[in-house]
Amino acid sequence: MQTIDITRQKKNLPIGFVSQTTGVLPVTLRAWERRYGLIKPLRTEKGHRLYSEEDIALIRQIIRLINQGIAVGKVRQHLQDPEGTTASTSDWPQLRQQLLHAAQNLRKSTIIDLIRHAGKLYPLPMLASELITPVQHFIDQSDHSDRWAHSQLLEQSVTIYLDQRSHQVNLPAAAPTIFMVTMLAEKIPLSAHLFESIAREAGVDLRWLGRVPGISALTEIAHRHNIRAAVIWEDSEILGPWEALLSRLKSSLEIPVAIGGAFALQHAAKLQEISIPVLPADQQAAIAILKGWIETNTCP
Question: What residue stretches are annotated with the HTH merR-type domain (predicted)?
Fold first, then answer.
């Protein structure tokens, strides 16, 4: 086994740092190494993996290729022979069909197993955008009489999976915290749960609190816990004069605040008029805004 002295080679980085830097969980990095031979990190004498800057660049290249539609099992072949593989090798269509079939047959354990299997091979942003969200959208748009059951079972299964996956994320105890709340929803929307998990895996201590009982309640808890910023997440339409409500909320808080979710994207122009930043649909761009808050404590 190849070993290296970590004290002498500071450019070689531990797996936890690489995971937060790239957004790829350690379990996925290990799978890419063991199953597919995509990465070959060095090892310390105790067997701990150490990654170079070149390894990080390669990991990002792998992510780009997967985003282009290359199945993870075909990435090594593509790296060796770029002309030999095409986007048609993607395995997302088959995974989506399998997940849909499991949801329609009300097989919760199968749903969780399918998502867990894909989650070991692909980063969470891809898992969300290429598998979970498309299947959820298809179910919600179908005319099947049982679609309500299919949708709820999928949501329950994804929530269980994300809770299990969260145990693999280790954030520093002193990391600045951003709270995420809703003014409307009684429970966490699936889109919010996915975004929370993706942000945490990217190194942002984003925490879902639930529905806010009032503006004063959010102001008090933000002050009491020294919160760095707040995200309002709404997928459903807010009834009533929401412009005045959100303006009052923004003026009451002494921290940056932005709004995300389907509602925010639909009313982005009006929100801009009242100086409420909208988190973009692109999750990586949205997370970059949160990281900017952490680094500068100023609202974009």
Answer: 12-81
User: What are the helix and strand counts (H, E) for the chain?
Assistant: 15, 7
- How far lies 144's CA from each of 138, 153, 292, in Å? 11, 15, 44
Q: Of 112, 115, 123, 114, nearest to 169 (Cα)?
A: 123
Domain chopping of the chain, boundaries: 13-84, 91-167, 171-296
Sign of CA dihedral 253, 256, 262, 267: positive
Compute the chain's Rg from CA coordinates: 21
**Does 88 score more than 80 pLDDT?**
no
Does residue 283 have a pLDDT over 70? yes
Specify whether the CB–CB gap between 138 and 99 falls below 8 A: no
CATH assignment, 171-296: 3.40.50.280
Please say whether the structural domain 13-84 has been given the CATH code 3.40.50.10090: no
Cα–Cα distance for residue pair 262/140, rounded to 1 Å: 15
135 and 99 in contact (C-beta within 8 Å)?
yes
Q: Please tell me the distance from the alpha carbon of residue 115 to that of residue 165, in angstroms, as a whole number.
A: 11
Predicted model pTM? 0.83
Can you point out the beta strands (E) in 135-186? 177-182
What residues have CB less than 8 Å from 127, skipping those under 6 apart?
115, 118, 119
Give the pLDDT confidence of 56-84 residue by residue, as tens digits. 999 999 999 988 888 898 899 888 877 76
91-167: CATH number: 1.10.1240
- 21 confidence band (pLDDT: 50, 70, 90): confident
| CB of 169 closer than 8 Å to CB of 200 | yes
CA nearest 26: which of 34, 204, 175?
Answer: 34
Mean pLDDT of 22-27: 90
